[in-house]
Specification:
Layout (H helix, E strand, L loop, with lengths): L1 H15 L8 H13 L6 E8 L2 E4 L5 E6 L2 E6 L4 E6 L3 E7 L2 E6 L1
Parallel strand pairs: 1-7
Antiparallel strand pairs: 1-2, 1-3, 3-4, 4-5, 6-7
């Protein structure tokens, strides 16, 4: 009888546990950005990073970007250098016309 109760208890615990996927703040930000730009043809962005007392532009102009997981991949420069920005450090973003503006802490 005890074995039956134990088996029943374990079965209840197993069935009650959900297989929910937990997302990081960076993945949530990626989902929000993808939702905001969906169908709008946005392919370039301005990127600003916080330096002490103010935000500073990283590239001086809009650069092509892709969202890859919880990262923004930017290809910029004359040699097509690759830069990665972690969306977990994203303070906010703005959609201005067909360009994005990212602000990172």
């Amino acid at each position: 009888m005890k074995k039956l109760m134990i088996i029943f208890g374990l079965a209840c615990l197993t069935l009650s546990c959900s297989k929910e996927t937990v997302k990081t703040p960076g993945q949530v930000a990626a989902d929000q950005i993808n939702s905001a730009i969906s169908g709008k043809g946005v392919t370039s962005a301005f990127i600003y990073e916080w330096y002490g007392t103010s935000y500073s532009s990283q590239f001086g102009n809009a650069v092509p970007f892709q969202i890859s997981g919880q990262f923004i991949l930017v290809t910029a420069g004359t040699t097509s250098d690759h830069y990665y920005f972690n969306l977990e450090k994203l303070a906010r973003f703005e959609l201005l016309g067909n360009q994005l503006v990212f602000y990172f802490n």
